[in-house]
Amino acid sequence: MLFSILVAVALVSQTAARFTADWTSLDARPLPSWYDEAKLGIFIHWGVFSVPGFDSEWFWWHWQGQKPPDQKCVSYMSKNYPPGFSYPEFAPQFHAQFFNPGDWADIFKASGAKYVVLTAKHHEGFTNWGSPNSWNWNSVDTGPHRDLVGDLAEAVRNRSLHYGLYNSLYEWFHPLYLADKKNGFKTQDFVMHKLLPELYNMVVRYRPEVIWSDGDWEAPDTYWNSTQFLAWLYNDSPVKDTIVTNDRWGAGCACKHGGYYNCEDKYTPGQLPKHKWEKCTSVDTFSWGYRRNMKMSELMDLPTIIKDLVRTVALGGNYLLNVGPTPDGMIPAVFEERLRGVGAWLAINGEAIYASKPWRVQTENTTVPIWYTSKGTSVYAILTTKPSKPTVQLLEPKTSAATKVTLLGNPKPLPWSPVVPSYGLVVLLPELPYTPGQAWILKLDGIQ
Fold first, then answer.
1. From CA 441, how far away is CA 405, in angstroms rounded?
2. Residue 86 and which of 29, 47, 195, 233 are 20 to 30 A apart at CA?
3. What is the rounded CA–CA span in Å between residue 229 and residue 304?
4. Tens digit of each residue's pLDDT (9 = 90 or more) over 69-111
């Protein structure tokens, strides 16, 4: 299959400017505009790891991979499962019997997200679609006996959301990968016979607009054949004009190469980065996958999520918020409540978020912490704390006689006065309406 694809690539017309299989060329590819405009995405970690629902999506590795094993995981298995029980025996219990992709897509749409990224394959190697390269270790051959990737793709796209797929390059216990690793990654049997055929098949079959790559850190990009794959993706794939990729394509690539940068999980820069980036984070602060024993105190509350979203967007990033569904296919009600809360806040304040750009100043802290975004000639001052007084002071904007201030959700202009002539302003606030997100946005027109 891989050979036939490469032959097809070689026969493609050379009339268009093409990217070559090196980082200098690939890194120069413009990022499709839809991605920066979207700002908010939903991440979904779902797989066989959802069945034990304990520790995290790294449960198998913590139980039987790392040395020494995590005793919490060892104890969990010894107390709840018979001796000799193996991790693959969890797969038939991954029933997804309540999985309704339309319900999921409705929740994601209601969250205000513009794109959705589903785990197609995590480090355990189980694929959430009928991969021809993962016999009997996929969601069609066992467990749900259905194409989870394809079913969700249809539902998400029917609601005009962009659809992306997470894919782990490596697999903890795949024999071909372990053999390549033992050989110091001088052989590529896993890459040529498993990873690449599966990736090409996934792209052609589902046409994702995001490939969220992961599991790259043990080997260089030359082992993964990353640049060759990305050159095909950008030049000749069915999604060559819309596809967006991250930066996890080999050891040392993070924050240096690829499409947008993740840098690390839950990355939060201290100042405006020079390159488009994304913060991925999870409502459950302890795990990306479902945990049956999660506690309310371990979850991000809505004000924290909104504040995190605002900071990320003000610093030019996208915000990818993760939820972990149950093995029977339900998004836990507490996660749904968080997502719908984000959407309710964005329904009023999305003007300052979607398709916005960082302003010349990203933040200031006078009366209360303020984050700034901009769009066209408007600047938005975002208050993530309710002021103790009925006024708020903004020192950074340069005012003029034409300056106008409004509160999003309320079209009535607000009274203001300059701090010093033509610089800074003190705004008289109305009674700020209650919002579960505890953040309010002032729209400033006629300023610099």
1. 10
2. 195
3. 38
4. 999 999 999 999 999 999 999 999 999 999 999 999 999 999 9
